[in-house]
Amino acid sequence: MSDPRGVLLTLAYDGTGFSGWAQQRNQRTVEHELHRAIAAIDPNASPPRGCSRTDAGVHAEGQLAAFDATITRPARGWVKLLNNVLPEDISVRCAREVNVGYNPRFTSRQKRYRYWVLADKVPDALLRHRAWRVGYSLDMDRLVRESKSILGTHDFAAFRAVGDERAHTIRTITNVTVDPVDSTRRLWVFRIEGNSFLYNMVRILVGTLIDVARNNLPEGTIARALRDKDRSIAGQTAPAHGLTLEHIDVGLQPGEGSPWPE
To answer: Which domains does the chain show, CATH number per domain?
Structure first.
């Protein structure tokens, strides 16, 4: 057994069959499946340390998780070996060497989430696990205007689930975009990027935007909810299956090796 080595993984997963990232008793989770895969290759390795605790049904393209290995493998080797033993709904997209004990949660600088909304009166079987289908008319110009209120540093206490009991609720949102995927204007992509997010924050923001777009809530709702810190002013919580953790920026770390693949 060699000296421990830190390994940082970039993961993608289809969240449909999982009860979220975090390990839970008698539930299938991403963390548990990843831990089992790592242990199959290196029984003495540490459990994985994830960066973002995605909810049940939420997908990821850029989740980060680190662990300490007790066997020596190149980054390329970890990618190939882990993908050989992981279930089909999780894949390792990239690996690199980091310091032993490194935890990406403590160095996260920016996260970017993507949410897909399907504006269609009939279901689309190919998007049923990827996009929230909204069957009523939406005023997307009104929605885009409303989305501008999200930008900046605010107290987002009104945009978190009841179970989020964190005392510090001030977050900085650096970018918000809402765009049609193609000329049909049927599928819309929302991207929200910021330094940190509260529990269900992105889903409540998207749900509120949709409620404004369907004229269920007035324009200015987000600004008023931010000002009054009142969850009852904001709109519905959008379903989990439309949400994807797209990217996490943790910067370069001392002792970090070259990633594979680059």
So the answer is: 5-107 (3.30.70.580), 110-245 (3.30.70.660)
